[in-house]
Amino acid sequence: MCAAFSPEEDTLFEKTGAAVLKRLRKTRNPADLLTAVASTYKEFDRAFAAAPAEAKAAVACRAGCGACCHVPVGVQAHEVLIAARHVQTHFSPTQLDELIARAAVHRAAFAGRSIGERMALKTPCVLLAEGSCSIYEARPEACRSHHSHNAEACQTNLERGREEIDVYIPGVRGRMFAVMLATDQAVVEAGYDGRAYDFGSALHEALTSSLCAVRWVQRQEAFPESCREAGEPDDDADSGVMHAEGYFQD
Ligand code: SF4
Q: Is the dihedral of CA 68, 232, 163, 10 positive or negative?
């Protein structure tokens, strides 16, 4: 599928895509569709568990770090809806109100800004709480796919506003992106919204309008234009399917 993938990663990509597509196509009850996609999150855990031991041992990510949670997070609609469902079932009414207020501020700050301007804001994710993810089990795919071998370098990159130091672990990264790209592509192939959204902005919309989930199930565009991820001039504006090559460039 992608020249950057090893044969093993390529196999993982093909198998994951086929499994997600099959699961989505055989789900008849619309209420079960999100659960069907969410079950793919286990594939990320399995892919990590099967990575080479030395690659896993190199992971420096720890609870309480959170440097990587200060950049814009690009997602597809299903990831937002899975996160919103988790929040609605696990957060107290007060926590929910506070989250909606934070997401509204985030959305207003991102409105009309380019991706570079959004990056420069270095705003913490609206779900970051005391350095940890408050929806860890339901976090988006990009968050699941990120592993660093150098937490200090992550902090330095954040302070400098750009990824000057390579923190990635090839033996893990390729596997995680194979699962992520396969999932995103399968969702699109099954006819569901594949546009790229800004996580914080779309989460605000999902928590304040139940119509987002209805539109997604009906295979419509789930979120308004104001929730779109800001792209670079050459980006494919209509696709939330990540392009693997972009993740392996220096
Ligand atoms: S969803 Fe969780 S892991 Fe992802 S950026 Fe937000 S706080 Fe970090």
A: positive
| Contact 138 CB / ligand 1 (< 6 Å) | no
Can you point out the beta strands (E) in 23-107? 74-75
Radius of gyration in angstroms for the set of CA atoms belonging to the chain, rounded to a whole number:
17
Phi, psi of 25 (to 5 degrees): -70, -30
What percent of the chain shows pLDDT beyond 70?
Answer: 91
Q: Report whether pLDDT(83) > 50.
A: yes
Who contacts 123 (Cβ-Cβ below 8 Å, separation ≥6)?
70, 106, 109
**pTM (predicted TM-score):** 0.91
Q: At what angle do helices 7-26 and 41-49 cross, to 10 degrees?
A: 160
State percent of the chain over pLDDT 90: 80
Is the CB of 73 inside a 6 Å radius of any atom of ligand 1? yes
Instruction: Say how far apart CA 88 and CA 40 lie, in whole Å.
Output: 20
Cα–ligand 1 centroid distance for 24 (angstroms): 26
In angstroms, what CA-CA distances link 13 with 1, 9, 87, 98, 208?
8, 6, 29, 38, 35
**How far apart are the C-alpha atoms of 38 and 45, rounded to whole Å?**
12
Ligand 1 centre distance from Cα of residue 86 (Å): 13
Judged against a pLDDT cut of 80, whether residue 90 lies above it is answered with yes
